[in-house]
Write a sequence for this structure.
């Protein structure tokens, strides 16, 4: 780190607001005053790595045309908190209710499309893959079954694709799931496990900003968008939900996060469980 005065690495109110405006313009995420300390810590890591003398100069770096730092800035700011079987009721619903009904719906087509729209470090799409493999068993090979896993953050996508996790990430999982779907990553990664390659067979990982144009047309049978909408303002939430509804088939399932209730005002969505909705 350069020998600059401490005040040059302070984040004043004007600079913080400028950062908030930039994050909102690029991602639609609304940063509130309560996030100032978090923003400061994360950007200080980037400033130290780059050996930039001050926040002011870091801002100038971000504003440079075709700045290579912009993706790193977005990656640093976006929050990526997840776990295997997080909000497990969604996976229980798929296993016990949705998949049996979908099997009747699709008939001989045997087609299933699932979208994990904010996959973070991969725990969600891999849990989805475990769920589908548990339900279909060896018959999954007879299905046109695919999971699309997307995220804004390119760094977490690299972790997702690798499928390697610290051992403590799976400690709370049932023994059978650990035995069937994970294996030691030793000696390449001491103290880590990797997911069974079978789980990767039906997953495609892609970088996607939910505010930009979506290249996929659907229809999807299931869409997961959990604990993402809370970071957006209401107009952005509504715009994203409308886009979900356009590519979610009638009878398809939408899963939101535990603190998200924005779907209550949508007549097209029928609540069938905790933050679980079926498109009418």
């Amino acid at each position: 780190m350069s020998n600059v005065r401490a005040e040059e690495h302070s984040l004043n109110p004007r600079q913080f607001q400028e950062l908030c405006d930039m994050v909102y313009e690029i991602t639609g995420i609304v940063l509130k005053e309560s996030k100032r300390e978090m923003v400061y810590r994360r950007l200080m890591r980037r400033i130290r790595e780059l050996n930039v003398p001050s926040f002011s100069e870091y801002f100038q770096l971000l504003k440079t045309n075709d700045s290579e730092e912009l993706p790193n800035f977005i990656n640093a700011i976006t929050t990526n908190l997840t776990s295997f079987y997080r909000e497990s009721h969604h996976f229980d619903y798929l296993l016990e209710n949705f998949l049996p009904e979908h099997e009747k719906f699709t008939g001989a087509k045997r087609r299933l499309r699932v979208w994990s729209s904010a996959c973070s470090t991969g725990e969600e799409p891999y849990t989805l893959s475990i769920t589908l493999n548990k339900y279909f068993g060896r018959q999954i090979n007879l299905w046109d079954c695919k999971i699309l896993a997307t995220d804004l953050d390119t760094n977490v996508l690299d972790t997702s694709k690798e499928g390697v996790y610290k051992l403590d990430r799976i400690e709370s999982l049932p023994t059978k799931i650990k035995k069937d779907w994970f294996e030691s990553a030793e000696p390449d990664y001491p103290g880590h496990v990797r997911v069974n390659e079978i789980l990767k067979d039906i997953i495609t990982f892609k970088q996607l900003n939910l505010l930009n144009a979506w290249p996929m047309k659907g229809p999807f049978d299931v869409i997961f968008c959990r604990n993402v909408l809370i970071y957006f303002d209401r107009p952005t939430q509504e715009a994203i939900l409308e886009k979900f509804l356009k590519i979610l088939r009638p009878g398809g399932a939408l899963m939101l996060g535990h603190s998200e209730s924005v779907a209550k005002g949508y007549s097209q969505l029928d609540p069938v469980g905790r933050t679980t909705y079926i498109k009418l």
